[in-house]
Write a structure and sequence with these properties.
Elements lengths: L2 E4 L8 H22 L6 H11 L6 H13 L5 H17 L10 H10 L3 E5 L4 H9 L10 E5 L10 H11 L6 E5 L2 H9 L3 E5 L13 E3 L8
Parallel strand pairs: 1-2, 1-4, 2-3, 4-5, 5-6
Helix pairs in contact: 1-3, 1-4, 2-3, 2-4, 4-6, 7-8
Length: about 220
């Protein structure tokens, strides 16, 4: 292996920390942010939401309602992830939010980085959110270990092999030399279809059950790329 690509939610970090902390922070501030930035930073979010929801005349209040519904249903929509990235950036910098990681993650990433492996993150959350999650990690920044970040906008849907083809091309590593770690079987399927190696992560209390034919572990300490 030359590179390891990790998912966040359920893989490096508890699902609850993402959905309760980030989603909760976003939900509480979304209506006000849209109203105050409708002609500025929120303009692309409003336009994208109108198009995706089929509501071309929706005002900021209706956009907020649509986005909150998507948030509650965990819809992986690009306008929502963009808004969340901007809103939560303020929370990270104010000390209200921190990246939460399972205890085995930092030691493994540190060891893999020291061994010369290039580490990347691929998550449905925006690149901005991902960077903040690792930069403001509780216990100390993990961002110096990461060579790059990919999201729905820069790579594509996580359950499509073409997205993994694109990442391999961007990082310049042959598919067979990339290891992908995720808690979601469909994502593992897509990575393997693209020629990557993949290992499933199933931690106690996390929602996605293991599924053949992938190898599954419950800690990064069991993985030797």
């Amino acid at each position: 292996m030359k590179a390891v690509v990790v998912d966040i939610e359920g893989t490096t970090s508890p699902t609850s920390s993402v959905r309760e902390d980030l989603y909760g922070y976003t939900r509480a501030r979304l209506p006000e942010w849209l109203a105050e930035n409708a002609s500025g930073a929120a303009a692309s979010v409003i336009t994208g939401t109108r198009e995706q929801a089929g509501r071309p005349d929706a005002d900021p209040a209706e956009i907020a309602e649509i986005l909150c519904n998507w948030l509650n249903s965990d819809v992986k929509a690009e306008p929502l992830k963009t808004a969340q990235g901007v809103i939560c950036a303020e929370g990270f910098r104010a000390g209200a939010l921190h990246g939460e990681f399972f205890p085995d993650v930092a030691p493994a990433l540190t060891a893999w980085h020291a061994a010369g492996l290039r580490l990347y993150v691929y998550s449905s959350g925006s690149v901005r959110n991902q960077q903040d999650w690792f930069d403001f990690a509780r216990g100390g920044a993990l961002s110096p270990l990461i060579s790059g970040y990919f999201d729905l906008s820069s790579a594509g849907p996580k359950r499509e092999a073409a997205s993994y083809d694109k990442i391999a091309s961007v990082i310049g590593v042959e598919p067979a030399a990339i290891l992908f770690l995720s808690d979601h079987p469909d994502e593992l399927d897509a990575a393997v279809e693209a020629g990557w190696s993949a290992v499933g992560i199933h931690r106690p209390g996390e929602p996605n059950p293991p599924r053949p034919p992938h190898r599954w572990v419950d800690t990064f300490a069991e993985i030797q790329p």
